[in-house]
Structure formats: structure tokens, C-alpha cells
Amino acid sequence: MRAFTISVFGFLVIAAISSCFCDGNSSVLCMESERQALLKFRQDLIDYSNRLSSWVEGEDCCKWNGVFCDDLTGHVKELHLGLPDENFDFFSDEFVAYIWSKLGGKINPSLLELKHLSFLDLSNNNFGGIQIPEFIGSLGSLTYLNLSRSGFQGAIPHKIGNLSKLQYLDLGYSNNQQPLETENLQWVSGLSSLKYLDLSTVYLATATDWLQVTSSLPSLVELHLFLCHLNTASFPSSPNFTSLVVLDLSGNEFSSVPTWIYGLHSLVSIDFTGNFFRGPIPDGFQNLSSLKVLDLSYNSINSLTSSSLSRLNNLQVLALRHNYIPGQIPSTIGNLTSLIHIDLAINQIQGIAPTLLENLCNLREMDLSDNEIDQEVSEILQGLSRCSLDKLVSLNMENNSLSGHLIDQLGQFKNLVSLLLWKNSISGPIPFSIGELSSLKSLDVSSNRLNGTLPQSIGQLMSLEILRLEDNLFEGVVSEMHFSNLTRLKILQASKNMLTFKPNPNWIPPFDCEIIELGYWNLGAQFPPWLQFQKNLVAIDTSHAGISNVIPSWFWNLSTQFLEVDLSHNRLVGEISYLFKSNVVDLSFNQFHGPLPQVFPNTKYLSLSENSFSGSLSHFLCNFSIESSFILEIKNNLLSGEIPDCWKYLTSIWVLNLGNNNLTGKIPRSLGSLNLYALNLRNNNLSGEVPATLQNCTSLSLLDLGENHLSGSIPVWLGNKLSRLVVLGLRSNNFHGHIPDQICALSSLQILDLGHNNISGGIPKCFSNSSAMVTKNPSSSFLIQYQFYDREFMESALLVRKGREFEYSTTLKFVTSIDLSSNVLTGEIPRELGSLKGLQSLNLSRNLLTGKIPANIGNMGLLESLDFSMNRLLGEIPPSFANLNFLSYLNLSYNNLIGQIPLSTQLQSFDEFSFIGNHLCGPPITKNCTKKGVTSGGSEGHVGPKVNGLYISIVLGFVMGFWSVVAPLFFMRSWRFSYYNKLEHIGWKIYEFWQRPRRKDCVDSRRLSVLHNKDWVLGLAMNF
């Protein structure tokens, strides 16, 4: 932890900061020899951003950027060529500019000509993995050397140990892939003047002398050895650190706190983050009376004992983030009256002792986020208000189980800058006193149960920069007064509430935001005109906002800096010629029409689904390339023509959804060149066979080609190559042949839909190998959840369950289903299906299955939907049906089942249509059963047969009519063949009629009936 800056280096820090803004300020001309040396040095550098443009022949080098000279002699004494350590958004223009400004190339030995050079900073550049030049060890005047984060690798030259005047050495964070290394630290012993040493991420696993050497440096004040692969081996009994104040040993491999730490009484800051400590905090820390910072985060500490921290009267920072501390925080921590910062985030803390906060009168920052605190939020706020009311600056209790209401006295925390309560169960209104927090910069109460109207006093928070209110139960009208004094507001996120905001059309907001998210607000039919004043907007969400107009021209002018645009679920109209130059664009569920717009290469997520876009895909897809991962959804539009064969230029696409359009032709072979995770071409007019090139998409977790006119057999390679498949949908096509046994090799398969095809043969017995359907807790790790900024994308799929079509997205990974309905499957239902204990839906209806229902069907304890209707099943309903406690849909109609329906609360809850067309009895059917389980024949008390004359007439008429037609066919061969040829012709006409493009789910049952009748008639003709 770099919480302290040693006063000895104050002038160095000031000089480093000044170098970011100023050039050299020498009052005399630099030495000619040194100017030439610098020019040679520049020749070997790569300077893409032209940072060193001022380094020109003939100019005074003391005025060059980054060069500082001695005011009296003109000698170059300092080179400030490092960059500040910034954290820009990865996709932002600032990040690109920052990367572009890094120097690279080589370091020329001409630096040796700078005899008076005392300060050299090359940090945060990119020298591409070269070694640190050995000649740097000959720059004998150096007192400051910073080569951190500049891409050096290999062994550290031991000649650096010759720099006896060196006071500051930073070689940390060198190269992510191949860090710097050294087999020992003997060379460090020559740095007798060293006060600051940072070797973070340098590989020191073999340098067993690291402690002896560093402890022998008489002036060492700060030591940073983060992630150096250090362990507890070779510790001396008492290292001789005489001046050490700051010690950072985080990210190493210590299994316990080294006992020699407790003898370093001058230590002010200790950082042991991310080691392997277990058990409670050791009692030895109480001997470090000067300690102000103790960071033990990311270990396995499991308790806070009463004595371990009791004597740390000067402790100001206590960080125990991400451990395993359960239960309540003991009240003894309240004895640490000097505490300024306490961080106990990401533990298992369930509560705070009521007296804990009463004595922490100096507390400024408290982070209890990501725990299990189940208390009234008012109890904690009231405890803080007793002592630290005028001191508290930051309070973070995000992601807990806090309940209750915010206190009315919230406005008394006058110095509060950050209040973060995201993701709790806090209810009630925001108190009106919130407007008294004049210092508040960040307020996050999102994902709670807050209700009521927003207090207008929020508009008085003049310092507010971040306001997050999304996902609550706020309602009512928001006026211009709610924003009256929010002149510094940069982030406004308040989606998923029931708020209405319709300001005056001429209203000019007092703020200029970067992020505005007002999804689910009622913003009126007009596109919000006040958005045109947001010149720095990078993310906008006005989804579900009731907007029904066109997108105004001024909004397109704002789009050049957008990172995320979500205008979905409105009634926006018109044509779009080009899209926003954004990473995330969602225009789905609107009324846009015309051809698809132009797309920019930087787009990462694009959804144009549920609109009326028409025309071809060729111009849209084949005129641009995608730079990185991409999700493309254009389902439910009016697109036509063939899918273009230009996918080899779009290899970065992860998810492609073109379902529910009018696309024709074959599936292009070049789709196999994509690194797809999900492919959905459902409900188009595609024909031909599934291209074998799709077997190259080995990352596929979802493949849905249903409701097309695809033909051929089901590819064997689906099971051999696509081992990650979770969802396989081939419904309503013209596939024939058998179900290949290789499908059973898909161990992650949770959803299989082969319904409404012409598949024949038996049901594979090997389905019992599908481990995802055998387990009772399916949850596939292959159904990836994609994250773009704050936006989540989940794969979705349409499934037919319980006789209806459902779309699953967020719960898709928990769904299991097999649908083989409306095929020509024969044979018995394999008893092996009974082992699919995790299956929720099974549909085998409208086939030619025979035999009995397997007796172990009741083992499928999670079944919610079961359909065996319209087959030729025999025998009784197995008694194990009574075990299907979750069954909510059952259809056994039109089989040859007999006997009594098993008695169970679940089966008797269905109506008789679930059993119609069988020979069953007992509830819920009205027919009663005899003792042997057959239906009783007549009324009670009636004896003997009862003959109805009408029935006799019907039988005689049928016999006479039947033989008048059949007899000529039987004895006259020419009549027979003519009759059956004509009948076959009519059957094929009917078949072709039902094969016309349409929603096949509505007609396939009738089509199958025609096929079955045709097969019976042709069979009869052959027998004759």
C-alpha cells in the first residue's frame, strides 16, 4: 500500500508532477555534447504521438519537453519521460490516446554523456520486452530511477547496484507476460543510500536472500514487493530494519504472518493483501504501537478476536476485505478510537454490534459492502450519528440485506461525500433532509424497495456528481425543480421506476451529463428535446419510455462520442441510413422500416430486432469488418433474400440471431469460419442441408435452425464436434432418417427439439448419458452471460412446452427439455429415459410408438410437462405416475391405454381430455371402474343384453356398402390399380398443400394424419 509519501522525496514528487505540464526552464543554453547525446537517444525511440517534437537540432535542449537543466551550469540533470499512471475506460478515446503516447524502441547508450543526470523517469512506456540496459548502472549521479510499467523483461542487470547515490528505485510492474527476474538481491546491498525500493511483480522465488539484503539497507523507508512469489523460507530471526516505515508484501505466498514483523516498532503501514493467512488475526500486531495502516484483505482470516487489535491505539486504517469473517463485528473494535478508515468488504459479516460505532469519533470512511448484514439501516446510521456525525465522509454498505427506512436525520452528516446503499432491501421514501448534504458527490440507492415520490430537495445537492436510483418503486412526477442546482451532475441512472418527467419544451438542464439512463420512465411521445444540451453524453438509455416520434437530427450529431445507446421498446419510426458510432446499440422493439442501416466497425453489440427492416442482408454485412467481439440480433423483421456468403470477413461475431425473417436459400458455408457461441436462424425459409462447416464452430452452446425447410439426415458431427451444445433446435424441418446415437455424447445438452420432422426409427436408449438431464440441478456454464459496460446480454431460445411457445433468456440455463413429437418414430419408449431425473419437459406425441409406458417413469421427479398423446401405447398407466409431484401438464390421449388411472392428487387434478381416446376409468374420467379395473357396462340393477335397432341398421348398411365397393376391387385387377393410383395422387396433393410455407406448428398434426392414412392405404393395395 502506497498510503504514505516520505517527506525526503517531497521535492522529487513535486518535480515529477510539474513535468507533466512544463518544459525545461533553464536560464542558460544546454551543453552541445549533451544536446547531441539526447538527439541520438531520441533516434532510437519510437514516438507515435510525437511527444518529443520539441527535440529539434539547433534548439536549446533545456527547453525541450521533459528535459530539465541546472540553472547555473546548463547541464542536463533530469529526464521526465514517464507517463502518469492513469486508468481510462478500455474502449474510450482517452485510453487509445494514452496507449498511443507511450514511447517504445530502444534506449541508446548516449545517455552516458549526461554526466550530471540525477533523475531518470521512463515509467509507463512500452519498450516491448527488451532487457534493462546494463549501462544504466554506470549513470553514477542518479538519485532517482523509475522504469516501472514500461515493458522490460529478463534479468535485472546487477550493475544497477553500482548506483551508490540512488535514493529511489522503482522497477515494479514491468511486463505482464514475462516479468523481470533476479536470482538473488546481492546487487541491492550496494545501494547504501536507498530510501524507496519497489520490485513489485519481479520474480524473486529463487532470491532467498531478499530479507537479509533489504534489511541491511540503513536508510530504507519504503519497501514494496507485491506479487514476487515470496514465501516463509529462509527468514532470519531478527532482520535489522532500522528505518522501515512502509512495508508491502501483498500478493505473495506466506501461509502466516512472519513473526519478525512484530519487532518492527517503527512500522506505520503494513500490507499483506492476498496471501494465504488462515485463522484469526494474530495477537502480535498489538505490539506495533506506531501502526496506522493494517491491510490483511484477500486472505482467509475467519475471526476478529478481542485481543488481536486491542492495543493499536494509533491505528487509522484497518482493511480486512475479502476474507471469511462470519457473525457480528465484535464491539472491541470500537476501542480503536483513532480509526479513520475501516474496510471489511466481501466477508460473511452478518451484523454490527450496537456499541461498535459509538466511540469511533474519528471515522471518516467505512466500507461494509458485499456482506450478509441483516439489520435495520437506521440502527447503523443512528450509531454513526452519535459520534462521527461531522467526520464521516464515505459510507459503503452495498450488497447486503439491510432493511427498514432511511432516517429523517440523514441530512446531519454534513461532510458526507459518498453514500452507497446499492442492492439491499431498504424501503420507504428518501427523506427530505437529503437536500442538506451539501458535500455529497455520490448517492447510490439503486436496487432497493424505496418508494414514494422523489423529494425535490435532491435538486439542492450542488456538489452531486453521481445519482443512482434505478430499480426501485419510485412513482409520481419529476419536475425541473428536482434538477435545479445539480450543475455538477455527470451520471444520472434512474431506470426501472414508475416516474414521469415532461419538462417545458424550452427547458435547458443545469447539468451536462456523461451517462443518462431513464428507462421505464414516462418521457412523453416527443423525443426529449433537452437531451440536445448534453454535449458530453457517452451513454443514453430511454428504453420503455413511451416515445413515439422520429429521432431528431440533432441527436445524430451527439452520437459521435456515444459508447452505449438504448432506445429500445418505444414506438420510434422512420428510416435509418446509418447507426450510432457506439459500442452498444439497441434499437429493438420499435417501428423502424426500410433497408438496414450502415454499421461502424467499433460496434460490439447491435440489436435491431422487432422492427420492420426489410430488404437484403448483403449490403449491411459485406461492406464492413468487425474489430472485436460482436453480438448481432436482427430477429423478427422483414428481411428477405439469401444470407450472404461473406462471413469470413466477420470472424469476431460471437452471437448471430436472424430468426423470424423471410430469408431463403441455403445456409452459407462461410458461417463455419465464425467463433460462434450462439446461432439462431429459426423460422425462415432456408433450404438444403446443414453445412458441414458448422462443425468448426466448436464453441457453439446454442444452435437453433427450427421452422425452416432444411432436409437431409441429422448430422452425426453435431455430437462429435459440438461438445459444448446446450440447446439444439431443429424443429419443423424436413429431416429424415434416424436420430444418431452420437447426439447422446452431448453431455451438456439440456434442450433437444427435433419435433415436427420425418425422423424414423427408435428413440435412442443412450439419452441416459446426457449428464445435464440426469442431474436435478442443471445450470450450464456454457450459456454465456455477456457484459458490455453496465449492460448484460443473455442467450435466449423459443421452446414449446405445455402445448404453448415460450421464450427463455435469464432462466434458460435452468431449463431441460426433450421434444421428439410429430415424427415417425417407432418401437417402445426406452426405460432408460426414466434415469433423466433432471428433465422438466418430455414430448413424444404424434408418433407410432408402441408397447407399454416404462414403469420407472415416476423417477423423473422434476417433470412439469409430459405428452405421449396420439401414439399406439398399450397397457396401464404405471403407478409410479403418482410420484410426479411437479407435473402441471399431462396428455396421454388417443392411445390404447387401459385400466384405472392411478390415484394421486396430481393426476386427478387434470381434466378428462388428458386421457380421452383410451380405455381408462376412474377419476378424473366419469367412467367408473370394476374391481378388476375395467369400465362397468350398464346401469346399476340391469341384467342381460340390451339391443338397439338403430345399431343393427348401421351395421347392416356398413356391410352392404363396404362389399359393394371392395368386391369389384378384389376381383378386378385393373379397377384396383386405377383406384389406388388415384387415391395416392390425391394423398400427395394434400401433402404438398400442407407443405407450403407457414407456421408449421399449426398444421403438422394434420399433415402427419394424412401421411399415416396414405401409408395404410398403400399397404392395403400391396397386400391385394
UniProtKB/TrEMBL annotation:
InterPro entries: Leu-rich_rpt, Leu-rich_rpt_typical-subtyp, LRR_dom_sf, LRR_N_plant-typ, LRR_R13L4/SHOC2-like, RLP23-like. This is Probable leucine-rich repeat receptor-like protein kinase At1g35710. It comes from Durio zibethinus (Durian). Residues 112-269 form the Disease resistance R13L4/SHOC-2-like LRR domain. The chain crosses the membrane at residues 950-972. Residues 1-22 form the signal peptide. One of its GO terms (cellular component) is plasma membrane. It comes from the Eukaryota. Belongs to the RLP family. PANTHER family: LRR RECEPTOR-LIKE KINASE (PTHR48063), LRR RECEPTOR-LIKE SERINE_THREONINE-PROTEIN KINASE FLS2 (PTHR48063:SF48). It is found in: Cell membrane. Residues 32-70 form the Leucine-rich repeat-containing N-terminal plant-type domain. It is a single-pass type I membrane protein. Keywords: Cell membrane, Glycoprotein, Leucine-rich repeat, Membrane, Receptor, Repeat, Signal, Transmembrane, Transmembrane helix.
